[in-house]
C-alpha cells in the first residue's frame, strides 16, 4: 500500500538535471592530428579511424557520422571541425549518445575547458569515449580520471610551447620571420627546416605605392585604397593603418617573443626605413596638438567660410596699426571685408541655434537624432542587411556542402569546386561590407556625445584652441558655411545630421512645459532633409 500511495506523488519528484545515457544510442567518430606534416606523412588519421571503428563494433555502437579527419591544433577548442562535430551532436542529441575518439588528447588539450565541454555534453546525455583509455566517465571516479587526462594534455602542451618559444626566439634573433608572412610578401622557399626566401610579390609592388602616396601626398586611407583599386589591388582602407605601422615592410623584425628588440630582417624590404619613419612620424603627430602662429590662432574660420556671392574661401589678415584681424573674400577685385571679431560673434550666435537650452528636450532630441540618422542612411543600411543575409546563406551553403561530403553524397572534386566558389563569393561580400557598411553599434554613444556638445557649443568653440575650434567646425558643418556679406549673416550648406534636429525639435516644443513631443513635432520629424537650414528669428 505504501508504494501505491507514494506513486500518487510521482509527479512532484524533481527531474534530473543530467539526462540519462541512452545505451542504445548511436555515435560519431572524431579524429585529429596537430600538423599538416602528420596528416600527409603518416597514417595516424587512418589508424585513429580504424581503432575507433573497431571499438564501436566491439561495443555494438552504430556510427552515424565522421568528423575531423584533418589537421587542426587542439590548443584551442574553437577548431572548425571540432565545432562542427559539437553542433552536429547537439542537434541530434536524441539519437547520439557517444563521441568516440582515439584518446582524450585528440578531443581536447585545453585542460579545464576540455573537462567543461565534456561535462556539458554529459548533461545532454552524450559521453566522450576514448579507445585507448578505459574510463567510465558516467561515474564520479571515471569523470575525475577523464579530467586528469585533459589536464595532463594541457601540461604537455605547455611543455611543448616552452620548447617552441625558445626555438622561435632564436630564429627571430637571427632575422628570420615566424608564422604567416605579412600581406604583400611570398616565401619562395616554404617548409619546415628550409632557409626562408621572403620577397615582395605582385600585390606588394602595388602596396608600395600606398606608402609613397601617404609619405609624399598625405592622402587619406580611403583615397589610397581607391587609387590602389584602379591599379588592380583591392584592399580595405581600414587595413592600411596596420601596414603603415608594421616595420616588417622596411626590412625589420619585431615580435612579442623578443620584447624590446628590433632585428635587421633577412627578408626583402618593401620600402626604405626613411620613408617608413616619415609616415610614422606623421601618424604619431596626427593626434597631438599642433603649434600654430598667432595669425592662425586669431583666424580659425579662414579657409572654412565661403563667400555666398562666388563660393570662394575667406582668408584673413592683420591691420598692424590697429592690431585688429579681418576676414576677406579672396576673389580678385572683391571688397568683401569683415572684422574677425564680428564674424566670430555671429558664428557663436549661429552655434547657439544648435544648443540645448533646456534639459526637457534631451530625451525627445535623442529619439529624433537617431530617427534622422537612420532615415538618411536607410538605403545603405538595407543594402548592408541584405548582404549580411547573403553571407549567412553562403555560410549555410558551405556547411551543407561539408555535410554532404562527409556523408559521401558528393565527390571530393565537387566539394572542392563548389566550396571554393562559395568561399570566394563570401569573402568578396564581407570585404564590401567592411569597406562600405555603416557601423550603427556606436550610434547611441555618438548621440550622447553630441547631446553633451550641444549643451554649450558656443562656449566650447570660443574657449578651445585652434585645433579644437577646427574640429568642432568640421564636425557640425562638414562642408563649411557661407557668409552673405550683403546681408551680414551666415548661411549653412549642410549640417551634421545628428545636430540638424535641434532647431526643429526645440522650436516645435517651445512652450510645452513637460517636454514631451507634440503632435506637430512627431509629424515634422518625418520630413526629409530636416534642419539643413537653421531656423531664423
UniProtKB/TrEMBL annotation:
<dbReference type="InterPro" id="IPR011109">
    <property type="entry name" value="DNA_bind_recombinase_dom"/>
</dbReference>
<feature type="domain" description="Recombinase">
    <location>
        <begin position="182"/>
        <end position="289"/>
    </location>
</feature>
<dbReference type="Pfam" id="PF07508">
    <property type="entry name" value="Recombinase"/>
</dbReference>
<dbReference type="InterPro" id="IPR050639">
    <property type="entry name" value="SSR_resolvase"/>
</dbReference>
<dbReference type="Pfam" id="PF00239">
    <property type="entry name" value="Resolvase"/>
</dbReference>
<feature type="coiled-coil region">
    <location>
        <begin position="374"/>
        <end position="404"/>
    </location>
</feature>
<protein>
    <submittedName>
        <fullName>Recombinase family protein</fullName>
    </submittedName>
</protein>
<dbReference type="InterPro" id="IPR038109">
    <property type="entry name" value="DNA_bind_recomb_sf"/>
</dbReference>
<dbReference type="InterPro" id="IPR036162">
    <property type="entry name" value="Resolvase-like_N_sf"/>
</dbReference>
<dbReference type="InterPro" id="IPR006119">
    <property type="entry name" value="Resolv_N"/>
</dbReference>
<feature type="domain" description="Resolvase/invertase-type recombinase catalytic">
    <location>
        <begin position="26"/>
        <end position="175"/>
    </location>
</feature>
<keyword id="KW-0175">Coiled coil</keyword>
